[in-house]
Every structure is written in structure tokens, then in C-alpha cells.
Amino acid sequence: MLKKPKKVREVYFDHAATTYLKPEVLKSMEPYFINEYGNPSSLYKKGRIASNAINNSRKKIAELFGGLPENIIFTGSGTESDNLAIFGTCFKYPDKKHIITTKIEHHAVLYVIEELEKQGWEVTYLDVDKNGLVDVKELVKNIKKETVLISVMHANNEMGVIEPIEEIGRKILKYRKENNTEFPYFHTDACQSAGYLKLDVEKMHVDLMTINGAKIYGPKGTGMLYVRRGVKIKPQILGGAQEKKLRAGTENVAGIVGMTKAFELVQENKEKESDRLRNLSKYLWEEVQKQIPQVKLNGPEIGSDKRLPNNVNITFESVEGEAMLLYLDEYGIMCSTGSACTSANLEPSHVLRAMGLSYEYAHGSLRFSLGLKNTKADVDYMMEWLPDIIAQLREMSSANFSVGKHVKYK
Ligand SMILES: *Cc1c(COP(=O)(O)O)cnc(C)c1O
């Protein structure tokens, strides 16, 4: 039997799923719940205070991106921003019927594009290499006259690979110049990178960019879409004239203020915090290698500039991701898995599969995504238990089933 800790320590290693809210962020939001509750569309002072708060947020966010305030459309989530960018472009130009994307996008992009495919759009899903990187040449080769949109994520949520967005942006720009066209538009989902990388829309040459609040120590249910000047998209939510008529509905004033504060704070401190997390990630991966046999890192090398500094994705051979997850939970340790064994479709992560991992390998993966409050002590605490958990699960699986065989839970 596995030993249990005398005192369970709460260790949160799932910052790619969501983060806590920074106290400074909460403080910035507070006035807009109770005292400054005016509707930003109202003309009297209380309304103007609210609309000023939104406009100041727009200015600050735009400055951090190198864009203009009018480029920023506030939405209700990263998912909504992705939907607006993709449906918005494709429905605006319904005669242009080709989209390029990658096989490793977040479902907020992939499912939208799959829906368009059902409705008659042709889609090129780009392969990635074993580290998860897209081939820029391959992307360029696939652009054609009918291509209306290219959507490539900035950094992947599962194994933290950072795609060469600037290079892709330059190539798309070159294509447009040579062919004297404003298409294809270029969208990137930057939800995972906003906390760690500089997002400069000019350097990246993006037309549309998604970020959200929930991954950067801001409020959940907040997001924004950057829309470059001159780029026309069709609104997906109709009603009032908010957000230049691109996103109807009374604005989430506190949420907008909070997301802006969160974005300012993470961008201020990103280098120092990235260095710290890179070292902590290295430490975690080194300890795992030292103490647990038959492990494999998924994605680019830890510490490489192709990988987010806070992401460690490891396959533990012959173990089910969900079993590990549930065991770790009993010890207060939270992380996620690319396995979906107990979910309806049994398909493991599309991202790990696209990187060429077998079903068995994909099922044995755990993602540790580190964050602000994590320290070496968190890693040490986990390593007190993880080797025994893995050993026990391997023993169970070899006793009951042939090793490595995929087991279907029904
Ligand atoms: C979390 C995430 C989303 C979805 O954001 P929500 O605000 O939860 O809707 C989209 N794309 C990526 C890459 C993400 O990590």
C-alpha cells in the first residue's frame, strides 16, 4: 500500500488550465461591482465613469501590444474571441472557401474550423514535427487564391511549443504583396503565451489575435480579440452597438478592468518570472528522470526558446494518465493529462497524436504547468510520492493487463 502524507500540501501545477486571481487585480475590479456600476452606454456621469474605465483599458492593452485602442474588441472568453475571429472572417467573405490551420490547435479553434468544413469550406490541417512545430514552408505552399484565413496558435496549451509566428506573419505578408491581395488574414491564439512572451502585433504581422484573462492571473470569463485596422469581420453576437458593433451586450466592466490589470502585471514581470519557472521546470524534469524509470519528455527540450518556460509534459510508460491524476489528487497535487480514457470518446490528446505519439504514449502523459506561487518545495513534495505512485500503478497494470496495452474503461 502507498504511504499517505501526514499533512497534505496543496500543490497546483495546472496554470495552463487557469490561474488564481492576483489580489491587485481583484482590487482594480472592486469599484466596478458596487459603486461604479453604471452601464457604459449611459450618458450620465455614472455611465461615463464605466465607459472611461473600458476606454482606458483599451488604451493600456493596445500599448502593450503595439496596436491602437480601436483595434481591441473585448469579449467573454478566449473561446469567444477565437469564434469571432474565425467565423467572423469566413462569414464576412463567404466566397473565399479555404482555411489553413494546424492539427494542434485548441478546440476553440479546431471545432470552429471543423464546423466550417461541414458547411463547405475546404481546410488544410498542417502536420507538426515531433516537437509540435509547424513547417513554415509547408504552410506557404498551401496558400492559394481562395485562402481566406490562416490560424496558427502562438504557444500550445498541452506541451508548450512556441510556433514561429513572426516568420509565418512575414511570409503571409510577402504572399499578399506579391499577389496584390489583402488575403489570407492571419489569426493567432495567444492565450497561453500572453503571460510569458512579448506580444507585438507589428512584429508578429497578425491581423487577429486572441487572449483571455483566466490564464494570466486575471478573471475568468474575459477575453479580447485584436483586430488590425482595415480588417473586416462579421459580428457573431448581435444586439447593442457595443465594441464597434462587433460584440453586442453590456460590457463586463470589472472583468475588462481586471483582465487589463492582469495583462499589465504579467508583461511587466515576464522575463524574471520566465527565468525562474524555466529553472523550476528543469529541476522537476531532472528529478523525474533521476527517480522514475521509463519516462519521456514530450515537446521541445526544457529551457529551449521553443518551449513555454512553465510547461513540462511527460509520458510515464505503461501508466494511465487519468489514474496518475487521481492518485496525485489524493496527495493534493493537481495537474492534467492528455489521456481521455474515461471520457466518452476514449481518444487521447489530438496534440500528442499529431506529434506522432502512439496511443499508449499519449495515454501515459501528464502536463505540469507551473506558476507564480510554485517553488522547489512543491516539486520536492511531489517527488516524495510520485515514484511510488508510478511504481504501484505499473505493478497493477502488469498484474492485470499486458503492459502497454490500452485498456478501455466502460
Ligand atoms: C484556455 C485556452 C482557450 C480558451 O479560453 P477560455 O477563456 O477558457 O474560453 C483558447 N485557446 C487556448 C490556447 C487556451 O489555452
Low-confidence stretches: 402-410
CATH class of the largest domain: Alpha Beta
Tally of alpha and pi helices: 14
Q: Hetero groups bound?
A: pyridoxal-5'-phosphate
Counting helices, strands and paired strands, the structural category is alpha/beta
The H/E string reads: EHHHEHEHEHEHEHEEHHEEHEEHHEH
How much helix is in the residues? 40-55%
CATH homologous superfamily classification of the largest domain: Type I PLP-dependent aspartate aminotransferase-like (Major domain)
Quick overview of this protein structure:
The chain has helices spanning 23-29, 31-34, 45-65, 78-92, 107-118, 136-141, 165-179, 201-204, 253-268, 270-291, 321-330, 350-354, 359-363, 376-400, and strands spanning 11-12, 72-75, 98-102, 122-126, 147-151, 185-189, 208-212, 223-227, 295-297, 311-316, 333-334, 336-337, 365-369.
